[in-house]
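Below is a filled-in request sheet from our internal design queue. Each sheet records the structural input a requester submitted and the sequence that came back. We keep these sheets so that new team members can see what a complete request looks like end to end.

REQUESTER: design group, bay 2
PRIORITY: normal
MODE: inverse folding
CHAIN LENGTH: 220
BACKBONE (tokenized):
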């Protein structure tokens, strides 16, 4: 079996959210194979089902006045940040009732990506995500409707980590965030990171990737 990979580039959050829902409907209907959307967002704060707003450090209006969009969404988890230099992946896959297993598979894929860069990363029991030491490298939050997932993961590649200081990321006090750039001491080409993510997903899910969009040009 195969899964489709769409490289969408930089996409405003609201536009990507609407596109996710369209793709989700098509996967549910069986008219599209499992699909992984890869993209970046302009600066945006999103709040998931567990969020109450208490982990926002400023009023909602402050974020909009200071260059952040803000959305309350249906994914799991609390508050997180997306922005340029962060690789966001939305795996829209049939998962049935095996949501916990699906989360563990995403974590395993990201752990493999980190390992490909010589980084020892690990998931933490009790909540989704991938860590290096006491710092989170990748946030994960999914939703499942009609047996098909949407939303997904946010891997810090070359992310401006200062933007995380305006929230308590994922509601975890006393924890930090990190990126591949910070850990490696160099910029990481986004196309390279995308290729490693897709390779890891293919391995973990046992599916063959079929690329569409910009990143397809790098697959030769």
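RETURNED SEQUENCE:
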């Amino acid at each position: 079996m195969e899964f489709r990979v769409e490289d969408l580039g930089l996409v405003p959050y609201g536009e990507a959210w609407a596109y996710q829902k369209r793709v989700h409907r098509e996967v549910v209907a069986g008219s599209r194979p499992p699909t992984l959307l890869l993209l970046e967002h302009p600066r945006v704060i999103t709040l998931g089902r567990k969020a109450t707003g208490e982990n926002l450090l400023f009023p909602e209006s402050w974020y909009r006045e200071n260059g952040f969009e803000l959305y309350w969404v249906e994914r799991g988890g609390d508050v997180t940040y997306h922005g340029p230099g962060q690789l966001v992946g939305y795996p829209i896959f049939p998962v049935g009732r095996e949501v916990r297993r699906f989360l563990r598979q995403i974590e395993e894929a990201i752990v493999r990506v980190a390992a490909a860069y010589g980084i020892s990363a690990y998931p933490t029991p009790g909540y989704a995500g991938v860590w290096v030491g006491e710092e989170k490298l990748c946030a994960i939050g999914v939703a499942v409707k009609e047996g098909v997932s949407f939303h997904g993961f946010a891997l810090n590649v070359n992310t401006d980590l200062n933007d995380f200081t305006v929230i308590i990321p994922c509601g975890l006090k006393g924890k930090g965030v990190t990126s591949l750039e910070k850990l490696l001491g160099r910029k990481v080409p986004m196309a390279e990171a995308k290729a490693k993510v897709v390779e890891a997903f293919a391995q973990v899910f046992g599916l063959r990737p079929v690329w569409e969009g910009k990143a397809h040009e790098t697959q030769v």
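SHEET NOTES:
- The chain has five helices and twelve strands.
- The mean pLDDT is 92.
FILED BY: M.R.
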